[in-house]
């Protein structure tokens, strides 16, 4: 094995399957009498979730996350949760409410300036106390945040996204019910799905590969290739929805334990600077990052095994055992085009923005997982190819 030493951490309990939301009544037993539900502003309808809480005799406070988590939002939500004396937290929605829920559960029990716990813009201090019990219930197939140890926070005045990262942020329970994703509209299915797809490709190529993560990626990449477009075309295709929920879960497990790469290293700063869906940014960057990384690796010494990983991906996505790396990259680019995902230029990004994006990306944790060290010129080329 290339890297047979690894440390693996994830949620305390993972529950996966159609209709598994019904297990919530058993899961919440003994957690307390009052919950704060952190949810998205639109789909899906939380009616069944609230019925289960009411039947179980649980009081609830609702906090709606309408944007990606930011400092002001967290300060407000934590204050509300403390005043209501909430005993536990449920996150219900896409990556934003799931991440916000993780941070809120942690900050209820850890006082002081939130910046103390943030990377890049703060001190990056570890949490001193365990989080409140946290149940993560994703309703999109994208971030895999239900099984990761970080929460992404937007710092609005600095136009940057940073992470709160600690083992205490791992959810107590990750409850993944693919039926909750059926109402997700096509454009969000596409963007979140491309994020999930990227999050099983980058950990397979990262310099921090390990055999357990490799196993997840080998399972997930063909599933995403088979099912993402099906879920986009027909949201009621339950087999495709199950596949993409599983891909998202495996992506979360993979990135949390093997890091990502330049796609996310660049996407984080771009997301902080421009109002655009994270998955759309990832989809625009992924082909160019793969091309540049593959070229650099192929030109280096003792890299046969690393080049083989790019060929693996090409074979898995195309279904062609003789597919070239460029054929695989083209397949991924064509998938994004079929789902009407635009390039970076359509998001308002121009070459004049490249220097700031590149400067910010150098501090990204994800960039440190890229299989090769990229120069400023190489990152500039990636961004240019992604327009």
CATH topology heading of the largest domain: Dehydroquinate synthase-like, alpha domain
Choose one word for the global shape. globular
Q: Provide a count of the helices.
A: 13
Please tally the β strands and state the result.
8
The helix content, as a percent range, equals 40-55%
Q: Low-confidence parts lasting 5 or more residues at pLDDT below 50?
A: none
CATH homologous superfamily caption of the largest domain? Dehydroquinate synthase-like - alpha domain
Label the structural class: alpha/beta
Spatial strand sequence of the major β-sheet:
1-8-5-4-2-3
* Biggest beta-sheet profile: 6 strands, parallel
Tell me what the CATH architecture of the largest domain is.
Up-down Bundle
Mean pLDDT, to the nearest integer, reads 93
β-strand percent reads 5-15%
CA gyration radius, whole angstroms: 20 Å
CATH class of the largest domain: Mainly Alpha
Based on the structure, what is the oligomeric state of the protein chains? single chain
How far the N terminus sits from the C terminus, by CA atoms, comes to: 38 Å
Number of domains: 2
Order of helices and strands: EHEHEHEHEEEEHHHHHHHHH
How is this structure best summarized?
This protein has 387 residues and is of the alpha/beta class. Helix content is 48%, strand content 12%.
Set out the fold topology:
Blueprint: E1 13-16, H1 24-27, E2 34-40, H2 47-55, E3 59-65, H3 71-83, E4 88-93, H4 95-108, E5 134-138, E6 150-155, E7 160-165, E8 173-176, H5 186-205, H6 211-233, H7 238-258, H8 262-273, H9 278-298, H10 304-318, H11 325-338, H12 354-361, H13 376-385
Parallel strand pairs: 1-8, 2-3, 2-4, 4-5, 5-8
Antiparallel strand pairs: 6-7
